[in-house]
Amino acid sequence: RHEVVTRDGYILTVFRIPGSRGATDFSAARPPVLLAHGISLSSTCWVVNEARESLGFVLADQGYDVWMMNTRGNTYAKGHKRLTDSESEFWAFSADQMALVDLP
User: Fold this and answer.
1) Residue 19: which domain range?
2) What CA–CA distances, in Å, run from 47 to 17, 36, 37, 52, 64?
3) How far apart are CA 90 and CA 104, in angstroms?
4) Over the stretch 8-60, which tens digit does the pLDDT of each residue have?
């Protein structure tokens, strides 16, 4: 679990699967892959099914270093440097900000 702060103050959680299930040595270099969910979803969409049917786990089992991001406003991205999610200003964003600011 990692946190990223956007330039406009939103705190986004990024989850990582560094290797295959049961692995204990994560020192080997693995190609990174970033999974970005669709609108009104969260990173859980990549791991919600059984492991053999969840893209996050399938990629990790195939040797990738899997990173699953979350965009502002979902369950894993309701933090902000100065706002709370009960303030209307927190929710004053559009899909444009999600694409232009939240994505790397």
Assistant:
1) 2-102
2) 10, 12, 11, 10, 15
3) 21
4) 999 999 999 987 777 666 667 889 999 999 988 999 999 999 999 999 999 99
Residue 69 CA to residue 47 CA, distance in Å, equals 12
Answer yes or no: are the C-beta atoms of 83 and 9 closer than 8 Å: yes
Among the listed residues 65, 68, 64, 29, the one whose alpha carbon sits nearest the alpha carbon of residue 46: 68
What is the reported pTM?
Answer: 0.86
**Using CA of residue 70, residue 73, residue 78, residue 80, what is the dihedral sign?**
positive
Count of structural domains within the chain: 1
What b/e readout covers 41-67, taking b as 16+ CB neighbours within 10 angstroms? Answer: ebbbebbeeeeeebebbbbbbeebbbb
What are the C-alpha distances in Å from 28 to residues 5, 19, 23, 62, 86?
A: 28, 10, 11, 13, 43
